[in-house]
Structures are given as C-alpha cells and as structure tokens.
Give the backbone structure.
Amino acid sequence: MLFANSANASLLGVSKAELEGRTTQQLLDEKIFSNSVILEVIRQKKQISKISYNYHTRLTVLATATPIFDDVGNVKYVFNNVRDITALNELQNSLKSKDTIIQQQSRQLESMRIRLGEGTIIANSKAFNEVITLAQRVAAFDGATVLILGESGTGKEIISELIVNNSPRKDWPYLQVNCGAIPENLIESELFGYEKGAFTGADNKGHKGLFEAANGGTVFLDEIGDLPLHMQVKLLRVLQQKKVTRVGGTEPIALDVRVIAATNRNLEQMVREGTFREDLYYRLNVVSIFIPPLRERREDIIPLINHFLMVENQKYHTNKSIYSDTIDAFEGYCWPGNVRELENLLENLVITTPGDIIRRENLPLKLRRPQQVSAEEEEETVSLKSVVERAEYAAIERAIEKYGSIRKAAAALDVNPSTITRKMQLYKDMSSRKQNK
Ligand SMILES: Nc1ncnc2c1ncn2[C@@H]1O[C@H](COP(=O)(O)OP(=O)(O)OP(=O)(O)O)[C@@H](O)[C@H]1O
C-alpha cells in the first residue's frame, strides 16, 4: 500500500499509518481487510468491483480496483476506489429489487458476535441471546453440573465450549466424549480407565479414563441419553462420590471434574419409560439450558448465512454472495438439521454454484418449496387431506430432485407426468391461499 487517503483509512477503521507501507497479504492476515479486490486484480489483470463488509467499521463498501500496467504489461500499481454503500444497501434491501445483488450484511449489524477460541458464535435472536446469557452466568458457578438440551445441530457443543471458556477451569483439560459412539463393552474403561491386566487386550501399563485425564477440568458427555442403564448407575456413583475406580482396580482416585452433559433426546420421557435413571437425571439437571431449534429463532438465519459465507469464502478463497431473492427461501425453510444443516448447505453452495452469485435456482428443491411447514403447524392438528397432500408433494419433490425431470420422476412414481404437474400446482395454490390468509 503506497498511499491511502484518510477517507479510505476511516472506512477501514484504521489510521493511514497502519495501511501505508504494508502488503495486502499483511492487511488480510491482520483482518483489516476481510477480502481483497487488489489481489484479484493482480491475478486477473483487469478492473474488478467487489462488495464487502467490514467488521470493524460495520460498513458495507464497494471497492473498484483498476490495474495500472508497466511497459511490458505487468500490473505495476493498483488504484483502488472504495465507497461506503451501507445506506444504499439498506435501501436496496428494503426494496428487494430484483436486479440488485446484495449480501444482506447490513442486517448483521444487530448480531452479537462472541469470540470463542477459534470460532465465533452468532446470536441475533432474543431466544439465543438468552441461551448465551444463561451459559455465561452458569459458567462462573464452578462445579455445577449443566445439562444442555436441544435438537441435533442446534449448537449444544459450542455452548458447552462457551461455558468452559468463561469458567475458572478454562486453562484446565476439556475432554469430550460421545456416549453414543463408544461400543457398549468399552464405555466403562473409556470413561473410568483400567488397571493392567483388567481384560484381554488391555494395555499392560493400564490406562487413564476420560474422567481421570480431565481431572481439574471439564468433561463434556455428549449424547448422554445413549448411555446404557448399567453405565448410568456407575456414572451417578462417580458424580456423587467424586471418586473413580479404574476397571480391575481397587484404589479410588479423587476427582475434581465439572460435568456438562448434552442430549437431543427427551430425558424426562426416557425417565418415564424407564430407559434413563431418574436419580442420574436429577443429578445432571442441576442447571439445564434449552437451545431452541433454528426454525423458532429465524432472526438468526441471515446473520448465520453471512457468517458461514464469510467462513467458506475464506476457506475456499472464493467471493460468493447471495442474491436477494434467495433470502426468503432460507428464512422460510424449517431446518430440521438446524445450524449444522445451514452450515453444510452454505459450504455446498459455495462449492457447487457456478459464478460468484448464489441464486434461487442454485438452492436445493426443499428450500424452493412454495411454503414450508412451520413449527406451529407441525404442532397443530391438520386435516388428513392436507397431511396426504404434503406427503405427496414431498415424494414428488424428492423424485424430481433424484431423477432431474418431471418425466423421469413420474416414471419412478408410476404416475403420468401431468399428474405430477397438477399436484404441484394444487400444492402451490394451497400454499398461496394460506399465505394470503
Ligand atoms: N450460533 C452459532 N453460531 C455459529 N456457529 C454455530 C452456531 N450454532 C451452531 N453452529 C455450528 O453448527 C454446527 C453444529 O453445532 P454443534 O455441534 O454445537 O451442535 P450440537 O447441538 O452439539 O449437535 P449434535 O446434537 O448433533 O451433537 C457446528 O459446526 C457449530 O460450530
């Protein structure tokens, strides 16, 4: 950077001195630039314009960089003109103009970002902010067991990390185990360790279990609902006595471990059905944190999209943005896989979309459906006719996605193509009637 004027510096939220004399790569590394049009111009040897969002100043800017060539056609300088288009963007946003390409980043202004180790937690909705506030409060109560509940992919693991990082144990070991992933005959030795010769195949020096290895720190027991009943008894004993005895051992080892457990299963119902011990449930449930599914906190969707777009763009060195008319599809979808599904979809779209703009037609069919079944509707008692219609529509949609055309889908479903067209039209009419209600 040979020269920067003060307007440029203030748009980036730094002083001129922090820019001049630095390379673009240095500025990228220091996160003063979130992406760089300059490097793109050097690579492509032509004028390029790019819209980007600056996290320091919270401004959306349009950068137009022009190459200046030397005598033999190499890029000698790049002239970069940067303009604040935040207001314009907001206007475009509200107009939802069809021909406007926006990244919807202005909405991110409201979102709260919390630094957490390497990652970032996005929390814009009131519901998720309450989760974070509770997690931060609980974190300080060292030793209190926490139970995190929520559907798969809602963020239980990152909330657990947030608790650990805000707790007095943050510099002590933090070990995680997925109780559903360990074969039943190995769970006890994995959790509590074993003495040499405890069983055939055991390491002849013995082995520390997860609890012993995390002594002084925190253990995250993921999928606690999958823990077999006989292990539930043993876990309860360890938690109550604050001591662990290795398999094949006799000497109990004193433990000072905080336990955070998580599950996407309904533990109360499991207690009623006798598949989860009531005493362990109460022991774990000293404080419980419920993370609502994404469909019940839709205000998080756009900030999450922006966040994952930025992450994937950085990861794949791309510069993809989202076309404004796709946003409704993202907001309208019911996200059964929650934030993980959104994250995976964004990664998929960044990889598979040709060109830099992700448009409605690039989205999977399930998002382009005329109307999604909302959580409230799921709970509502709906007529049998509409249940059948939805099931038919879902089957049609899956077949079209799989076979790529109405004709092939019709052959697979053993109906006429005209039946498919008619049923899809019916469904669309039904949805728009509902929307107009
Ligand atoms: N609010 C958020 N901000 C940023 N990333 C998030 C947020 N919530 C979830 N994620 C990301 O979504 C993915 C799923 O989150 P996580 O693993 O914490 O969910 P989980 O509830 O523990 O899932 P499972 O029940 O399947 O174990 C992770 O990659 C995580 O980083």
Notes: Residues 119, 121-123, 150, 152-158, 222, 264, 307, 339-340, 343 surround adenosine-5'-triphosphate (CB under 6 Å). The chain has three domains: 6-84, 126-290, 300-436. The first strand starts at residue 48 and ends at 54.
